[in-house]
Write a structure and sequence with these properties.
single chain, 300 residues, alpha+beta, two-stranded antiparallel ribbon, 50% helix
Length: 300
């Protein structure tokens, strides 16, 4: 079925948003396992004109499947209205030309987003997406050769590294977190799993105010302000989040502060105050505008 909402599907998939790795590309469609009301379904989406052609398998209703895919690709967000907003500011006007059709790629599994966001810290897009994909294939549920992400109850039991695996099993089978290439982040991931398995209910976060949710996820080891904002934006739909790192700092400084050196935390505050409910989208467009326009090379 065609869902009429303009999107650049490939750009959205490969944009490095920390909700999840890109879906499996088979011919001209992107495919992945998605749970809908607890039922497994294989979602398939492909670009048709400026819209997507969506199909799915499994024992789920069409209305539930459509609602889920719209949420994942944020298809109810009014891009035309957003582009008018960008066009009204000199600093932002060119962004829609370079990023036309880019949408938020929101989490199909909030816990996967949390671990993905922790994995993305000080890491390349290719490395963290490969790590998360490896974790799914090692420990996720297999449904027609597509894999879910392991839940918090399972992940908290995984070995950290070869040494711990050898100690417990007397043999190394690469069945540990560091074997997935996560490096020093492995203990953070396991501790996060313990927290969301034993201490904190994930569903509570979406019911919190932004400030309360931000302070809550900051308590998770391995989660600083940037990772916390990624979790809230991509995992829970807090659009006012403005994930800020050294690159966003350089871009904001160039566009708004004549290249002056400003602190990352001030950039975050500026983005949230300046852009309001559009902050998450502006951050996403800023980053990809800088990549595609050549600005990022200029700012290195």
């Amino acid at each position: 079925m065609i869902i009429e909402a303009p999107i650049d599907l490939e750009l959205t998939q490969i944009s490095g948003q920390t909700s999840q790795p890109p879906w499996n590309k088979i011919n001209d469609s992107y495919n992945d396992l998605v749970y809908v009301n607890g039922e497994p379904s294989i979602f398939s989406v492909k670009q048709t004109g400026e819209n997507i052609d969506f199909s799915y398998t499994g024992n789920v209703s069409q209305s539930s499947a459509v609602e889920k895919v719209k949420k994942i690709y944020d298809l109810d967000f009014d891009l035309d209205k957003f582009y008018k907003y960008l066009d009204s500011y000199d600093e932002l006007r060119d962004m829609s030309k370079f990023c036309n059709g880019l949408r938020l790629f929101q989490a199909k599994d909030p816990f996967e987003c949390i671990i993905s966001s922790i994995c993305s810290a000080n890491n390349s897009i290719k490395r963290w997406t490969n790590s998360i994909s490896d974790m799914k294939e090692k420990w996720g549920r297999n449904f027609n050769n597509f894999y879910s992400f392991p839940d918090a109850d399972s992940l908290k039991e995984f070995y950290l590294d070869d040494e711990e695996e050898l100690l417990k099993e007397n043999v190394v089978k690469n069945n540990n977190l560091k074997a997935c290439g996560v490096g020093y982040r492995a203990p953070y991931m396991r501790k996060a799993s313990e927290i969301f398995s034993l201490e904190m209910d994930l569903s509570d976060i979406s019911e919190m105010s932004y400030d309360e949710a931000f302070e809550t996820v900051l308590k998770v080891p391995g989660v600083g302000p940037k990772v916390a904002d990624c979790i809230l934006l991509y995992g829970f739909g807090f659009r006012q989040a403005f994930p800020s790192d050294v690159w966003i700092k350089r871009i904001v400084s160039y566009l708004y502060f004549d290249g002056k050196d400003i602190k990352v935390e001030k950039v975050r505050e500026f983005g949230m105050e300046e852009f309001g409910d559009y902050a998450g989208y502006v951050q996403l467009y800023m980053f990809h505008y800088a990549r595609k326009s050549g600005l990022m090379e200029k700012l290195k």
